[in-house]
Design brief:
- The chain is α+β, with helices and mostly antiparallel strands.
- Helices cover 35% and strands 29% of the residues.
- The chain is built from two helices and four strands.
- The protein has helices at residues 15-30, 58-71; strands at 2-10, 38-41, 46-54, 78-80.
- The chain has a four-stranded antiparallel beta sheet with strand order 2-3-1-4, with helices on one face.
- The longest helix is centred in the N-terminal third of the chain and has 16 residues, at 15-30.
- It starts with a strand and ends in a 6-residue tail after the last strand.
- The relative contact order is 0.29.
């Protein structure tokens, strides 16, 4: 069964962080965690990005996102909302 992973992404960001977020999304697709990432307005400050992944890859995908956020200093820009192991 597929599981949904949600990311809260700040709308007002600089170009460098925008490129890092695009790279994260590309990596999620390239690594086979998902085929598509949905983007919706959460409110005036944030987008809600979500994607489905198989239950086999959910924790691996969440760990990848958390590590990417940490390595790229994006903790003020993007937040993993549905971590199953907080």
């Amino acid at each position: 069964m597929d599981k949904t992973i949600k990311l809260r992404v700040k709308k007002e960001i600089n170009r460098d962080n925008e490129l890092k977020i695009l790279k994260l999304k590309g990596n999620l697709i390239t690594k086979g965690y998902t085929e598509i990432i949905h983007i919706a307005d959460e409110n005036e400050d944030f987008y809600l990005n979500s994607f489905s992944t198989s239950s086999d890859y959910k924790i691996e995908a969440e760990n990848f996102v958390l590590e990417y956020i940490s390595l790229n200093n994006l903790s003020d820009t993007i937040t993993l909302l549905s971590a199953s192991h907080k």
